[in-house]
Amino acid sequence: MSISAKTTALIVLMGVLLSLSAFVVQRSIVYPAFHEIEVDYARNNIDRVVRKLDTQRQAIDFTVYDWSAWNDTYSFIQSGDPEYIESNLYPDTFLNFGFDVALFLNLDGEVVWGSVYDFPSDGGIVDLTAAHLDDVVAATAKFTGRIDPEEDIDDQATSGVVQVAGIPVLFAMRPIVQSDGSGPHKGYVVFGQFLDDELITTLSEQIVQDFSIEPVPENTAPAAPDNYSLKIIDQSTLSASKIYSIEGIPTLRATAILPRNITELGRDITYYGIALLILLCIALATALLALFRWIVVKPIMSLRTDISSISSAMDYSLRASIKNNDEIGALSREFNSMLQMIESNNTELLRLNDELTSKHQTVLEVQSDLQAANAELKRLSEHDPLTGLSNRLALEKKLEQAWGILCRTGDPLTVMLVDIDLFKLYNDRYGHQAGDRTLKQVADILANAMKRKSDMAARYGGEEFLLVLPGTNAEDALSIAASIREQVIAANIEHDCSAIEPFLTISIGISSVVPHAGLTTGDLVRAADKALYTVKGSGRNNFRYEPVDTTGQ
Ligand SMILES: Nc1nc2c(ncn2[C@@H]2O[C@H](COP(=O)(O)OP(=O)(O)OP(=O)(O)O)[C@@H](O)[C@H]2O)c(=O)[nH]1
């Protein structure tokens, strides 16, 4: 796996791990934080709803306060004078003060005067007094017990919610006292509002928050300050509920349906954040890879190309290029140092090789000289120094060698003993040195007469020569002997004290045999010697053939 591939895998792995980490952090920290904000937001909103309901209750209570601490009301509750009602409590008064129920109760909780209206949104007035007055009186009269006349005038109040014809009525009640707040109180004033859909819609518009209400039984556990009920409806909405208590008594449950904008925002931020992070990782990985290729891979590939060129050319005088002053540059310098060392070693090796070659040449020359000397020694050991012909030692070897070969081939072996006639007289007449030159002259004639490579002319001793002719039969030998004799005569070497001719002559004894067991070279030479002896005895200057004596076998 290449460095690039490994680095790519590492960066991708890091990117994936980073994205996963970011995702986990987003899901476990950021997203819950948004959820917490949303919960706070929901609580604030449902708190606003409850506060709005309480504000509504307070508004009714303020109105009740005005009407209950008023001398006219104080007189009315005692006298029941209809003038008070006609002057003050016509339907528009209800509409202006924003309540639907008005009750004036005596100290026994019995209604002195009361009316119940409904004000639909089309501007009409529906008088519900006949239908619901008794219900309202029955529901509210029992609250008179909550009012303590001994309390300060400001605290002599109660309020609550009662159900009339299935509709909750928010009411406030105060005792009727004189305008200066003095008593004793003579009855109770009750004003109330239908918490119907129309009013709830109006309140919702005022606080810009839709909500609904439902009555709760009185024995419902009092709501703790943070007793909220939050319920996730679906991905985009949740419901927040809170019990609205009046004087510590649970009365209504207000519920608001809220959009989960914040959670959605958190989720979107999480997803967009992760997507952005992944894009950043990809961009960063791409940039890192490009940078890595530029800083690391490219110089390494360049160094590799240099190394490849140098090793294929085997030219260690070349150097890798150093492009950066970093670790790869240091590697290139180390490589160049190694090349320098190899080059130095090569130079030294070449010098040593030259020296070795020179010594080898010397050895070869010495060897050649030795071979020449050996050859010369061999030649000297096998040749006669005066005539240049083979000596007696070489002759013996030749005879034995030829005898062995011809024993197997069945061809004849011929020898000739050549002796210069009356050579003593020649020496005496012309001197020993002249005798030497003549010996050499005759030897040359004999050597030239040896036509085959296997023939040999040897100095047998003194002025006597032995010619060895393997494969030559007697007939051919006689012809050769005649030719040699004539050549010596033709040489016309003066020998004026010879009794034969006035020039030098020779005598030749010839013998030939097919070598075989029972005979030796000695037998053959002896036969030739016998022939020579016969020639010498019969006047010299001639040649003769003598067969080998095989009678002694
Ligand atoms: N100059 C010279 N003479 C040699 C050499 N070797 C032998 N001689 C002489 O050759 C002569 C041989 O003489 P002999 O054996 O008596 O025979 P010859 O005089 O040739 O008589 P025949 O052989 O019977 O014809 C001797 O005088 C030797 O000194 C040599 O190397 N150089």
UniProtKB/TrEMBL annotation:
GO terms for molecular function: diguanylate cyclase activity. InterPro entries: CHASE4, Diguanylate_Cyclase, GGDEF_dom, HAMP_dom, Nucleotide_cyclase, Rev_trsase/Diguanyl_cyclase. Its cofactor is Mg(2+). It catalyses: 2 GTP = 3',3'-c-di-GMP + 2 diphosphate. GO terms for cellular component: plasma membrane. GO terms for biological process: cell adhesion involved in single-species biofilm formation; negative regulation of bacterial-type flagellum-dependent cell motility; signal transduction. The chain crosses the membrane at residues 269-296. Keywords: Coiled coil, Membrane, Transmembrane, Transmembrane helix. Its EC number is 2.7.7.65. Residues 294-347 form the HAMP domain. This is diguanylate cyclase. It comes from Marinobacter subterrani. The lineage of its organism: Bacteria, Pseudomonadati, Pseudomonadota, Gammaproteobacteria, Pseudomonadales.
